[in-house]
Every structure is written in structure tokens, then in C-alpha cells.
Amino acid sequence: MSDLFRPGGPRIIAVANQKGGVGKTTTTINLASALVETGLRVLVVDLDPQGNASTGLGIDASDREFTTYDLLIGETALQDVIRATEIEDLGIVPATVDLSSADIELIANERRSFLLHDALRQTEMDEYDWDYILIDCPPSLNLLTVNAMIASHSVLIPLQSEFFALEGVSQLMITIREVRQTANADLRIEGIVLTMYDKRNNLSQQVEQDARDNLGDLVFETKIPRNVRVSEAPSYALPVIQYDPNSQGAIAYRALANELVNKHQRLAA
């Protein structure tokens, strides 16, 4: 395992934005793939009942006997829940629509907000030697997203380069602050990554300027462009890094991975 992070465990990042269609799942699977390409071991936890991260990493819907729901309730062995993907050193805990009822079914559990935190810190997890765990959150601020934030060291926020984009971020910031105050005092914002960016579009440039004016250094330098290859890749059950390694989307996600790792190296120095 890399020595960049705290002893005994991987760096856990929740990829979250309650607004749908912002490139959250796309960012999760492609950032994971780009990190693996640098020699790191990465686990993706699909916490979205739509299960798109699972599909995008090649886990067919009919082949998900054990899922994130089983991970949360803790009644299934870790080795049965974590699945290998076609990409070496990239694992996934897949999701199905069963997760959509988690809010109701887990309400009686006193530790309902800490289930993912506990699951990712069980001693058996050490055997996998992950460097990063990326959690693909659902597009809502529900119990699942709160679980992800309590389980994580930080939150990475994809921000679509379109009108009203920053309005949704303010509500997410409030939720992060509440989680800090009540359950995870060390939670921080990993950063904001601009997605679906079109440099020819004045609106994209305006959203970037507004984001940098309001959020400063929290905004990653790397921008993810609007790119047809990024859109096509999931239909082949592949990250764009594997689908078209030389595409602008693949190049951007590699740059994002490098920026993230370099930041963590500076913090660890």
C-alpha cells in the first residue's frame, strides 16, 4: 500500500452532488481507473440504487448476488461483496435497486448512519490493501449519502458547467457542515471538479469564474471536457481510460488523478 495516507487504511472519498446528471458516476469510475493506472489499488463502492457505476465497470445487473446493501447490513462476508473488475487492482462493491429502500429498512438501527463507516473499517478490509476507496453517492441528500460522508475523509463534488450549478452546491455544503458537527469532525471538502466543460461556451467560462471566485482553491485546476468518448464508454462497460486512452476525456481524468495524488503527497510531506 502507498504510504501517502493514514497508517492502516486507504483514503476514502465520497463523490457527491444531490443534483443528478452532473457527471458524478462518470467521475467516480474514470478517476478510479486513472488512479489505478498510476499504480494504486482502488475500490469503488456503488451507493446509488441505479447501479450505474457497477454497469460502467462491467458488472452485469443479473450478476449482482451480493451488493452494497449486504455490505451495510453486515451479514455477508466481505470477500463475497467485493468484486474484481476487468481492470487489475480495481474492485467494486456493486449496487442494485434494493438500496432504494435502505432509508426505510434501516431506520430502526441505532447505528444506521454509521453502517458504511463500520463496514469499511472491519479488519478483513486490510487484506485488500486498497490505497483509495471512492464512494459513488446517490443524487440526493438521504441516509445513504450521510453514510458515505460519515465513512469518508473527504467529499469530491462534480460541478456541471451549466447555469444554476452553484446553487446545488450550497445545500451540499450545509449537509457537509452538519455531518462535521455531529458525526465526522474531520470531514473536509476534497475539491470541486468542473465537468462537461466546453471552452468554446461562454456559459462554461462564466461558471468556472463564479466557482473560482466563490470557492477559490477548492476548485481543481483540471476541468473535465464535454467529450463524446466519455459518453460512449459506459455502453461498452468500460471507463474512458480503457475505451479510448487518447481521448480528451481520458487525458483529463488522468490529469485529475495526478492533481489529487500530488495534493495528498504535499499534505503528507
From TrEMBL:
Q: Which residues form a coiled coil?
A: none
Q: Which InterPro entries match?
A: AAA_dom, DNA_Partitioning_ATPase, P-loop_NTPase
Task: Domain (AAA): give its ranges.
Answer: 11-189
Q: What domain of life is recorded for the organism? A: Bacteria
CDD domains attached to this UniProt entry? ParAB_family
Name recorded for this polypeptide: ParA family protein
